[in-house]
C-alpha cells in the first residue's frame, strides 16, 4: 500500500507543480489546463465527445461569451501543447480563471 501511495503522490505533486509553473513543461501544462477546462465546462453542461476536435467542440458551445473565452483558451492551449510554447502555457492559468468567471454567469 505504501509503495502505491508514493508514486501516486509524486505524480500528483508533479502535476500540481507544473500547473503552478507552466513554463517548466509547456506541453504537459497545456494538457493539465485543458483537462481542467473540459471538466469546468462539463459541470456547466457543455461536454466534449471523444470524437470532437477542439474546433468542433468550440462550435458546439451555445453561449457566445463562453465560446469566445474558450476559443482564446484553446488558441494558447494548442500553441503550448503542439508547439511547446512556454509563453502560451504561461497564459493558461489566467485564461482558465477567465473561463470560470464567464461560465458562472451562464
Q: What are its keywords?
A:
106 residues; 5 helices; 77% helix; globular
Question: TL;DR of this structure?
Answer:
By secondary structure, this protein is mainly α. The chain is 77% helix and 0% strand.
Please tell me about this protein's structure.
The N and C termini lie far apart (44 Å). This protein is mainly α and 106 residues long. It is built from five helices and no strands. The model has no long low-confidence stretch (mean pLDDT 88). It is globular. Helix content is 77%, strand content 0%. Helix 2 (26-43) runs parallel beside helix 5 (86-104) and helix 4 (64-83) runs antiparallel to helix 5. It has one domain.
Topology, please?
Elements: H1 2-20, H2 26-43, H3 54-59, H4 64-83, H5 86-104
Helix pairs in contact: 2-4, 2-5, 4-5
List low-confidence stretches: none
Order of helices and strands: HHHHH
Shape: globular
How far from one another are the termini? 44 Å
Number of strands: 0
Q: From the alpha carbons, calculate the radius of gyration and give it in angstroms.
A: 15 Å
Number of helices: 5
> Strand share of the residues?
under 5%
Tell me the structural class: mainly alpha
* Helical amount: over 70%
Give the count of structural domains: 1
Largest sheet: none
Mean of residue pLDDT values: 88
Amino acid at each position: 500500500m505504501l509503495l502505491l501511495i508514493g508514486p501516486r503522490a509524486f505524480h500528483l505533486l508533479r502535476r500540481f507543480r507544473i500547473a503552478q509553473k507552466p513554463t517548466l513543461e509547456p506541453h504537459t501544462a497545456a494538457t493539465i489546463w485543458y483537462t481542467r477546462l473540459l471538466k469546468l465546462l462539463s459541470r456547466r453542461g457543455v461536454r466534449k465527445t471523444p470524437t470532437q476536435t477542439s474546433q468542433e467542440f468550440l462550435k458546439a458551445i451555445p453561449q457566445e461569451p463562453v465560446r469566445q473565452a474558450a476559443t482564446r483558451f484553446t488558441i494558447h492551449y494548442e500553441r503550448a501543447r503542439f508547439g511547446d510554447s512556454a509563453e502560451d502555457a504561461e497564459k493558461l492559468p489566467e485564461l482558465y480563471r477567465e473561463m470560470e468567471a464567464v461560465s458562472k454567469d451562464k
